[in-house]
Amino acid sequence: MKAAVFHGTRDVRVEDVNKPYTRKGEVVLEVLASNMCGTDLKTYQRGHPLIKEGTVMGHEYAGIVVDSMNPKFKKGDRVVGSNSAPCMKCYLCRKGSYSLCPEIKKTLVGFTVNGSHAEMICVPSNIAERNMYTFRSSKPEHIACAEPLASVIHGISKLDLKGDETVAIIGAGAIGLMFLQVLKTLGARVIVANRSEGRLEIASKLGADLLLKVQEDNTEKEIRNATEGMGADIVIEAVGKKETWERSLGAAREGGKVLLFGGCARGTFVSFEAEMVHYGERQLIGSFHHEPESFKKAVELIERGKVKMENIVDRKIRLDEISEGFRMMEEREALKVSINP
Ligand SMILES: [Zn+2]
Ligand SMILES: [Zn+2]
């Protein structure tokens, strides 16, 4: 079968590889949709500490079961799976920090086991067991967004929202636009700040209450101006750059929360004035990955049409066009590229 194999930075080749087969608890899918994301792009540009040469990339997927050695799934089921599953036994799992389970790394789809940018994928038994669902009504390329949406839901779960907050999202990429939609279902007033007019237009279609076209250096000022000079109750950093991490503190009001969601390059250090956190009582909240509960919710929200992916998945390509997919993402021509193998 054909698969997109990682060989090194800027070297991902579509080549013939052996078809996967099932062992106990595993499920093999014919891939219906495999979406590309910022993590794929970063892996392509600068590698990833977990990926080895020869691994098939891709971790946001939906497919149809062609072979199952797991009693939960049978041939013909249309399913959406996560890219990982926590062990439920280690110290962090016992403390409820499932997203940080170190065991996740052993079967991380598209990094330490072969991924979904391929005609077929073998879903590891722990994922099939705890983090995969059948779906009915959604298009495969939309339900395949359940994985990044699960991370968004996990981030929001840390905010203890009451529903009367003003939330400013910095960044209107696929992730920022998912945050926007989930926050609207929870009753928040949502401000979206971004440089690109086109992306703000999409944010407007998806229910943003206020759009701010910002340059990098006036983001804080614009958000303050839009919030009676106070700063937003909650600021979500959905860019993943040192500068925006630092600016998000200044965009939050005193006593507000800052969700630092965007992943920066390894070795990035950020700095801010201690006063912002001490006298200003701003709470800094980190968020990474997702847990089974948030993945389940993500699948439900897409299936029930509460979070729409039509405007987010804006390009569809064939597997052998994957280099073009990386180019479109790199040049910000696409929000999210879906591969139909
Ligand atoms: Zn991803
Ligand atoms: Zn664990």
Walk me through the topology:
Elements: E1 2-8, E2 11-16, E3 27-35, H1 38-46, E4 55-56, E5 60-68, E6 78-81, H2 91-94, E7 120-123, H3 125-130, E8 132-134, H4 140-143, H5 146-157, E9 166-170, H6 174-185, E10 189-194, H7 197-205, E11 210-213, H8 219-225, E12 232-237, H9 242-251, E13 252-260, H10 274-277, E14 283-286, H11 292-303, E15 313-317, H12 322-330, E16 336-339
Parallel strand pairs: 9-10, 9-12, 10-11, 12-13, 13-14, 15-16
Antiparallel strand pairs: 1-2, 1-4, 3-5, 3-7, 3-16, 5-6, 6-8
Helix pairs in contact: 5-6, 5-11, 8-9
Bound molecules: zinc ion (2 copies).
Task: Give a quick summary of the entry.
With 341 residues, this protein is of the alpha/beta class.
- Helix/strand-derived category reads alpha/beta
Radius of gyration: 20 Å
| Ligand inventory | zinc ion
Helix content: 25-40%
The first-to-last residue Cα distance is 10 Å
Number of distinct helices: 12
CATH superfamily of the largest domain: Medium-chain alcohol dehydrogenases, catalytic domain
The count of DSSP E runs of length 2 or more, i.e. the number of strands, is: 16
Describe this structure in words.
- The protein is globular.
- It contains 12 helices and 16 strands.
- The termini are close together.
- The chain has 2 domains: 2-147 and 290-339, Medium-chain alcohol dehydrogenases, catalytic domain (Quinone Oxidoreductase, Chain A, domain 1); 159-286, NAD(P)-binding Rossmann-like Domain (Rossmann fold, 3-Layer(aba) Sandwich), CATH 3.40.50.720.
- Strands 3, 5, 6, 7, 8, 15 and 16 form a 7-stranded mixed sheet that branches.
- Helix 5 packs across helix 6 (174-185), helix 5 (146-157) packs across helix 11 (292-303) and helix 8 runs parallel beside helix 9.
- It is of the alpha/beta class and 341 residues long.
- It has helices at residues 38-46, 91-94, 125-130, 140-143, 146-157, 174-185, 197-205, 219-225, 242-251, 274-277, 292-303, 322-330, and strands spanning 2-8, 11-16, 27-35, 55-56, 60-68, 78-81, 120-123, 132-134, 166-170, 189-194, 210-213, 232-237, 252-260, 283-286, 313-317, 336-339.
- The structure holds zinc ion (2 copies).
- One zinc ion binds at residues 37, 39, 59-60, 147-148.
- One zinc ion binds next to helix 5.
